[in-house]
Amino acid sequence: MEPNNQTWVHEFILLGLSRDWDTQVSLFVLFLLMYLVTVLGNVLIILLIRLDSRLHTPMYFFLTNLSLVDVSYATSIVPQLLAHFLAAHKAIPFLSCAAQLFFSLGLGGIEFLLLAVMAYDRYVAVCDPLRYSVIMHAGLCLRLIITSWVSGSINSLVHTAITFQLPMCTNKYIDHIACETLAVVRLACVDTSSNKVAIMVSSIVLLMTPFFLVLLSYIQIISTILKIQSTEGRWKAFQTCASHLTMVILCYGMAIFTYIQPHSNPSVLQEKLMSLFYAILTPMLNPMIYSLRNKEVKGAWQKLLGKISGFTSKLAA
């Protein structure tokens, strides 16, 4: 007989968004299209940066990592979500649930740190442009990236281990779209106050600390821009940061609203919708924002499309 069979859960049931079949089919089509756009857009951004030597700069090196994180984050959640839309039994094995939580939590933390790193890069570019290439050298960029990936992964590993050591008793129904930390912790049949404190501390370290670093960077950036005499110079400096600032507002804004809640608890539906926004919409918007608002990226697209058009014309001739 298996020991502690009252506290061991072999699988979880994700309740998802809806139990109505027609609604689930509609959501499947919608989220599948959004996921395909997310994967295609981010992969194209990565390939474009790799193929165009003009984009081999620290800013686009960081953007490559951000796109990789976005597509990986979406992949850790959306395929499972799509499969459950068409499944009658919406189960996820214990180990798969733990793996999903580990990757989604880790990649989320890495993204926050990357945005802080990119803010520092924009700070140097605007506030100390003459020494930019000296300060943002290849060695520093690589160390910043490694630190972001390692820090996010270690934080996620610790939280995943702590969360899945909790006894779930007979509780296996997760009222969420994925194995999200707070949703899983709520299943525990013991006092979880220490886990909630750990989640809050983690949120402060990996969310609020980078956010305040971003805020500090942009205070310095705005102060420098306001000192520029010419309107054209100010606009050019602002355009240097516009795409990144847009992503900062989206990512940090949604995450802070979701995880740094006031004492009044949000509804379960609100938690699901905010998670969907962060897991699907934000990664999909990233390549669009950098393509539409960045002259260098648009120029690289035009150059690549010109080469493709020329190659196609030669083949046709």
UniProtKB/TrEMBL annotation:
Membrane-spanning parts: 25-48, 60-78, 98-120, 197-219, 240-261, 273-292
A Pfam short name: 7tm_4
InterPro entries: GPCR_Rhodpsn (IPR000276), GPCR_Rhodpsn_7TM (IPR017452), Olfact_rcpt (IPR000725)
UniProt-annotated location(s): Cell membrane
Similarity remark: Belongs to the G-protein coupled receptor 1 family.
Membrane topology category: Multi-pass membrane protein
Keywords tagged on the record: Cell membrane, G-protein coupled receptor, Membrane, Olfaction, Receptor, Sensory transduction, Transducer, Transmembrane, Transmembrane helix
Highest taxon above the source species: Eukaryota
Keyword Iron-sulfur: no
Protein name per Swiss-Prot or TrEMBL: Olfactory receptor
A single GO molecular function term of this UniProt record: olfactory receptor activity
Record-level GO cellular component terms: plasma membrane
Gene3D superfamilies assigned to the protein according to its UniProt record, in alphabetical order: Rhodopsin 7-helix transmembrane proteins
Domain G-protein coupled receptors family 1 profile: 41-290
Family annotation (PROSITE patterns): G_PROTEIN_RECEP_F1_1, G_PROTEIN_RECEP_F1_2
Organism of origin: Cricetulus griseus (Chinese hamster)
Database matches in PANTHER family: OLFACTORY RECEPTOR (PTHR26453)
